Amino acid sequence: MFDLKDIRNRAAEYDANWARRGIEPQTPTILDLDAKRRQVQTELQDLQNERNTKSKDIGKIKSQGGDAQSIMDEVSAIKDKMSSLEEQENLLSTELNALLSSIPNQLADDTPDGADEDDNVEIRKFMDTPNGNPDHPDHVTIGETLGMMDFETAAKLSGSRFVVLSGQLARLDRALAQFMLDTHTTEHGYTETQVPLLVNSDVMYGTTQLPKFEDDQFETTDNRWLLPTSEVALTNLVRESIIDNLDEPLRYTAYTPCFRKEAGSAGRDTRGMIRQHQFYKVEMVSITKPEDSEAEHQRMLGCAETILKKLELPFRTIVLCAGDTGFAARKTYDLEVWVPSQQTYREISSCSNCGDIQSRRMNARYRPESGKGTEFVHTLNGSGLAVGRTLVAVLENYWDEASQSVTIPEVLKPYMGGIDRLEISK
Question: CA 173 to CA 146: how far, in whole Å?
């Protein structure tokens, strides 16, 4: 949500910022609804005062043995009018909140302009990409060649966009998650956290999954939601709370399955593990003071980059342009890993600074050192990393065509019980 007082004071700036996303001016409608609601609230307050005054008069008249019926009739009429105005206020508030909930966050000033992913800006690369080989096998071919990746059986169990991993490939997938968690907790200062996989609507609303992205979520029959990412639960750990000491950011990490309908991606990446209904991810979330969030954003990005560097996977870091920046984000960096079979880079992590859009929805605040009042925290989230996509990158970048095997990256060998390569299962 947004600070309505700030919108009243800087309406043109808000519309100019949203225009960078290709959105038409929103403040005329916002301010019209806000003015109507405030007018109704003023009328309600005036009537409340009038009713209180007349109620006191009724008490005095009755105490003196007089007839207060006419004033009582006036009070009754005031109550009826107040009831009508309260209904108007509720309708206006609902309409205003629905509008505000449908509008994306304000972009950071240094988010580059641009219409779509073609306008994203590359910042740096790590490692040279291997020589192009259009015949390089993809991860599906590699996994099935090893006899450890089975989409056909998964389809029998659950339908399309699911996979069954087995044997040492399943172990490699688990090793990746353990390596990521160990790195983030022991080297990067994140607190490992286990969170529920089912959350209520208020929690989903708090991190902007609802109402905007309802069609992409899995809802249970008892009106709860499967986590689309552990960001949802981790960020909401501070909902409806006031943090007394936020000298250092709160940092959480979690490894969970994630569930998405991928409603808006029909026909995209239908082969393999790039885009599935169920996938696993190690997530990072930070809660900061507003003045600390930009530095924390850079730090979080570095934490995600470290994982890829340790795995010695070629990748590039880009900053998303205005037209490609997500709904809740002020600014987003993506890490894209090299996928040899596609001869291109593919997203493996997004690190976003969401400012206070989520904390306003969650009512998450902190108390400044001055102790005067409270302020909304800033929230940040980043993949550290998407485990399935990292597995795809490892399989393809470490595939040895001559031996028909996958070499285990050095940092993962301690997690693999001494196994240094995946070979065709006998």
Answer: 14
- In 295-413, the DSSP E strands lie at 315-319, 331-339, 344-353, 364-366, 375-376, 378-386, 399-400, 405-407
Compute φ and ψ for 281, nearest 5 degrees.
-150, 140
- Give the closest residue to 120 by CA, choosing from 316, 315, 320: 320
Instruction: Please report, for the chain, the start and end positions of each structural domain, with discontinuous segments joined by +.
Output: 4-101, 117-422
With residue 257 as reference, give the H or E element that holds it.
Answer: strand 250-259
Coil, strand, or helix at residue 90? helix
The tens place of each residue's pLDDT in the chain, 426 residues long, gives 899 999 999 999 999 999 999 999 999 999 999 999 999 999 999 999 999 999 988 888 888 888 888 888 998 999 999 999 999 999 999 999 999 999 999 999 999 999 999 999 999 999 998 767 889 999 999 999 999 999 999 999 999 999 999 999 999 999 999 999 999 999 999 999 999 999 999 999 999 999 999 999 999 999 999 999 999 999 999 999 999 989 999 999 999 999 999 866 666 678 999 999 999 999 999 999 999 999 999 999 999 999 999 999 999 999 999 999 999 999 999 999 999 999 999 999 999 999 999 999 999 999 998 878 999 999 999 999 999 999 999 999 999 999 999 999 999 999 999 899 999 976
Q: What is d(CA 163, CA 158) in angstroms, rounded to the nearest whole number?
A: 9
Could you give the C-alpha distances from 186 to 181, 235, 248, 303, in angstroms and in order?
8, 21, 17, 12
Asked if 375 and 135 touch (Cβ cutoff 8 Å), the reply is no
Token pair belonging to 240? 């409806």
The CATH number that domain 117-422 falls under is: 3.30.930.10
- CATH dotted code for 4-101: 1.10.287.40
For CA atoms 100, 104, 105, 109, give the dihedral sign.
negative
